[in-house]
Amino acid sequence: MTRNGCGTKGMEGVSDRSPDGLAAPAPCGAGADWPRSRRLFEQALQVMPGGVNSPVRAFQHVGGAPFFVARAQGAYLYDEDGHRYIDYVCSWGPLILGHAHPVVVEAVREAAGRGTSYGAPTAAEVELAELVRRAFPSMEMVRMVNSGTEATMSALRLARAATGRPRFIKFSGNYHGHADSFLVQAGSGATTLGVPDSPGVPAAVAADTLVAPYNDLDAVETLFRQQGDQIAAVIVEPVAANMGVVPPQEGFLAGLRRLTSQYGALLIFDEVITGFRVAFGGAQELYKIRPDLTTLGKIVGGGLPVGAYGGRRDLMAKVAPSGPVYQAGTLAGNPLAMAAGLATLRILAEQKDTIYTELSRRTARLVAGLERAARAAGVPVQLPQVGSLFGIFFSRQPVRDYQGALASSGEAYRRFFWRMLASGCYFAPSPFEAAFVSAAHGDAEIQTTLDAARDAFQAAAEAL
Length: 464
Ligand SMILES: *Cc1c(COP(=O)(O)O)cnc(C)c1O
Description:
Layout: H1 12-17, H2 35-47, E1 69-73, E2 76-79, E3 84-87, H3 102-113, H4 123-135, E4 141-145, H5 148-163, E5 167-171, H6 188-192, H7 203-206, E6 209-212, H8 217-227, E7 231-236, H9 252-262, E8 266-270, H10 282-286, E9 293-296, E10 307-311, H11 313-316, H12 335-376, E11 385-386, E12 389-390, H13 402-407, H14 410-422, E13 425-426, E14 435-436, H15 443-461
Helix pairs in contact: 3-12, 4-12, 8-9, 12-15, 14-15
The protein binds pyridoxal-5'-phosphate (PLP).
């Protein structure tokens, strides 16, 4: 069944699968070894834009076609052609406990038996909100939504309403979902595809989005000095994880807290990735900063579609129906989604004193091993890590902002990616994404990954 456990497959998959110069480019990517995935992708291209429901899944950046997933368990993904991969994408962040965790699966099964949606309040929503508040004391009140995108757009609306100001500051390379206002120098898929400014976003809307380089406090201060009375909020990924991983430099987040307070603007931490990831209480716990509003997604839904926003009670009281700021959702607080989120957060809450240390330890071991393998291959690489989140930049210099991320070698990453995939290790199909380690990634999986990385860095070296 599993023909290419990590490191066992050797090179045969590469020549078919990879368009990395070792073989002719395969426009539909999957070769003889991936017949079902190739057929499915051809079908998908007829009925879905780019064959996918979210851009980065299309493998466009690495010049190939995606494998189609049949199932997943623990640290592993299994594709339609029977290959097995150690998964460092983990559904782009939600699966901190790994795939199909038995407790989470059972919770969803049970909830489904009681009905899939009511459109009326449930106990689970209250319990999840209480758990969120326990983890994030700054989130005195919480509203559940269906995605990170909904969370950020709603938080921004609230910030504008609360301050009576139209503009806000975001950072280049930070991704806050696909709402119009945020699609200005966004990271993630927008970076990957080279469309930081999407057609369809009205110029008038984009004009209210002010952009500063990440980690550049002076640029933020200048914007405030010039138009402070127009700025409702600063929204930031407290650890940037949609342009690869770029940690905040010493004093950056504290500086944002100081400037927003000084100019009467709100500080919004977009913790859709970092929430329950870099610490149980997210980046705000790790760096000891109290934002006014916080947005969550990914882990909070335990693998089902959930987002949340929350913050100061006086601000959240302005949200309908207790206040005039309108925001609603037919499936918000959905019982299956609440069940998956609750099961996940309960486990994290119970184990928070050990699980985050252990995840960090394993990730550090992986990162140190990757660094050694890269050095042995003579490849300059940056491997920023925060907890179980890390990135891989083929760059001589440490990366501190979007420009630095874009200056890293995409071609080296592409080669690394395909060689790892052929060896059964799935990293994000773009250098502008993060790698995620889950509780299901044991020392054995990490060792297998490191064994595969030696070859992959050799392949990357050919691009430099
Ligand atoms: C993923 C992500 C979003 C968007 O969440 P979706 O659920 O994909 O809409 C927003 N902000 C950050 C920081 C993210 O990583």
